């Protein structure tokens, strides 16, 4: 059998989507990283230390970490990433921040999508934020983070550089980051399009049956779970919304699915972006999976309890 047509189709589609996705990300990363660098250079963030230090201290993070976390929650993973790279954090600090941003990003946009497909957006958002905070608290003893910003090192700006020097540093740091992101995005999206062209996604979902059981999910939500894991809530939202409208899944099924994918969507595309910052892959994948499993199991216990007949008082 000649596989060249599928290979050509998948490669061309992947390269096109990779390029378009890269341009879309740059529209977020470049302005947000520049804004963050200017805020950090201006000293405005340091004037808010008295407000941020107690809260960030709970998670062994410096006050400056609040900015990337808030940007990530309101915008996207790319916005949070851009803000992280603009300030010289240590690798343990970036590890904690990356996990939080991966679990709780684009909350308004993705909350609306989840609200249209089976779960109340406020519940989905609060569970994501709560799970992210609990995950960070559990990670702190193992990651070795500190509330102190790392000491100035070679290539890192001094406390009060001249504005042109700050801009040069920002430009070079952003260029290195975007070059790495370009390679990752082009490779991943081309690979995904090849999977689609060869029709391998559905067999892959069926093979995931045992893993879905570990996650506490039914086989019937497997395709939707895989859609969110690969394409994310924003890209895969249309498929999830249409399936929810079809009525094939119960309210309980949809709620369990959404709480799981709220913590674990875009698992193919987003975590590798943080590998460019020296963060260990273990922390980018395992804590989120474990928290999703625990959350789904607890929800199933609650659903069974709620369905039980209770004797009248």
What does this molecule look like?
It is globular, with a radius of gyration of 21 Å. The chain is an all-alpha fold. It starts with a helix and ends in a 6-residue tail after the last helix. The longest helix has 39 residues, at 4-42. The chain is 74% helix and 0% strand. Helix 5 packs parallel to helix 14 (281-307) and helix 11 crosses helix 12. It has helices at 4-42, 49-57, 66-74, 77-85, 91-103, 107-115, 121-143, 163-197, 201-207, 209-214, 222-246, 251-264, 270-275, 281-307. The protein has one domain (4-148, 159-307).
Structure summarized in a few sentences:
The protein is mainly α and 313 residues long.
SSE arrangement:
Elements: H1 4-42, H2 49-57, H3 66-74, H4 77-85, H5 91-103, H6 107-115, H7 121-143, H8 163-197, H9 201-207, H10 209-214, H11 222-246, H12 251-264, H13 270-275, H14 281-307
Main sheet overview? none
State the separation between the terminal residues, measured CA to CA: 70 Å
The counted number of beta strands is: 0
The proportion of residues in beta strands is: under 5%
Count of individual domains: 1
Give the C-alpha Rg: 21 Å
**Mean pLDDT reading:** 81
Count of alpha/pi helices: 14
State the secondary-structure class: mainly alpha
């Amino acid at each position: 059998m000649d596989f060249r047509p599928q290979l050509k189709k998948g490669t061309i589609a992947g390269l096109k989507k990779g390029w378009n996705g890269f341009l879309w990300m740059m529209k977020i990363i470049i302005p947000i990283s520049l804004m963050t660098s200017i805020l950090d250079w201006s000293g405005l963030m340091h004037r808010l230390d008295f407000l941020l230090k107690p809260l960030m201290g709970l998670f062994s993070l410096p006050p400056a970490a609040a900015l990337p976390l808030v940007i990530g929650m309101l915008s996207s993973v790319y916005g949070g990433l851009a803000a992280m790279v603009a300030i010289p954090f240590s690798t343990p600090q970036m590890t904690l921040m990356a996990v939080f941003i991966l679990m709780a990003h684009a909350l308004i946009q993705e909350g609306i999508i989840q609200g249209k497909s089976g779960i109340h957006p406020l519940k989905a958002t609060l569970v994501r934020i709560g799970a992210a905070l609990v995950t960070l608290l559990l990670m702190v003893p193992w990651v070795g983070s500190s509330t102190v910003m790392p000491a100035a090192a070679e290539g890192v700006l001094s406390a009060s550089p001249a504005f042109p020097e700050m801009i040069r540093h920002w430009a070079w740091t952003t260029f290195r980051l975007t070059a790495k992101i370009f390679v990752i995005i082009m490779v991943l999206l081309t690979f995904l399009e090849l999977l689609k062209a060869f029709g391998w996604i559905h067999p892959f979902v069926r093979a995931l049956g045992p893993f879905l059981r570990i996650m506490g999910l039914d086989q019937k939500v497997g395709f939707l779970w895989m859609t969110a894991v690969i394409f994310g809530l924003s890209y895969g939202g249309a498929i999830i919304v249409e399936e929810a409208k079809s009525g094939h899944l119960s309210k309980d099924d949809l709620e369990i699915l959404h709480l799981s994918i709220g913590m674990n969507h875009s698992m193919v595309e987003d975590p590798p972006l943080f590998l460019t910052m020296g963060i260990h892959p273990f922390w980018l994948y395992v804590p989120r999976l474990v928290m999703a499993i625990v959350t789904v199991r607890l929800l199933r216990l609650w659903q069974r309890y709620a369905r039980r007949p209770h004797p009248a008082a």
